[in-house]
Amino acid sequence: MNDRRQRIGRWGENIAAEYLIKKGFSLLTTNARTPYGEIDLICQRENQIVFVEVKTRTSYTFGYPEDSVTPRKQAHMLAAAEHYLQEHELDGDWQFDVIAVEGAPGGQPPRITHFENVLA
Q1: How far is Cα 104 from Cα 106, in angstroms, rounded to an integer?
Q2: Which of 17, 19, 51, 89 is deepest in the core (most CB within 10 A)?
Q3: CB pairs under 8 A, 24+ apart, for 60-68?
Q4: How many separate domains does the chain show?
Q5: Which tens digit of pLDDT belongs to each residue from 38-81?
Q6: Contact yes or no for 76/36 (Cβ under 8 A)
Q7: Which residues contact 97 (CB under 8 A, 6 or more apart)?
Q8: Which residues pair with 38 in a beta bridge?
Q9: Contacts of 47 (CB under 8 A, 6+ apart)
Q10: Tell me, what's the pLDDT at 116?
Q11: How much is the pTM?
Q12: How far is Cα 76 from Cα 107, in angstroms, rounded to an integer?
């Protein structure tokens, strides 16, 4: 991944983390690596673990951010979450959310769309 894409991705993850904290989530960790891929954000709300995939776009050239969460990506997300839960011996309720961030650093305020429980 090139430096610009990484900067945009990290910016989007920071925007998403701030958004979730304002919504009452506790941020547990960022960029958790598993053999099945990285989990961008792991949060907790009440007694529920929430795994979050953040997708950021600066334009619509390649579609909306959420369009890139394909069935294949969802399978990797599920495997990564299950691995993380098992590795950390966590039990109980959990869900996977997607946060789409549209915008760019230094531009207009970003547009944030929160899709909850996408792997139901």
Answers
A1: 6
A2: 51
A3: 64/100, 64/102, 65/100, 65/101, 65/102, 65/113, 66/98, 66/100, 66/113, 66/115
A4: 1
A5: 999 999 999 999 999 999 999 988 889 999 999 999 999 999 99
A6: yes
A7: 50, 51, 52, 53, 114, 115, 116, 117, 118
A8: 33
A9: 92, 93
A10: 97
A11: 0.93
A12: 32
Token digits of residue 73? 């990506």
Q: What is the pLDDT of residue 120?
A: 65
The secondary structure of residue 49, as a DSSP letter, is E
The secondary element (H helix, E strand) that includes residue 22 is helix 3-22
* pLDDT score at 88: 94
Strand partners, 99: 54, 114
Range of the domain at 97: 3-115
Please report whether residue 76 resides in a domain. yes
In 3D, which of 83, 16, 97, 95 has the Cα closest to residue 48? 95
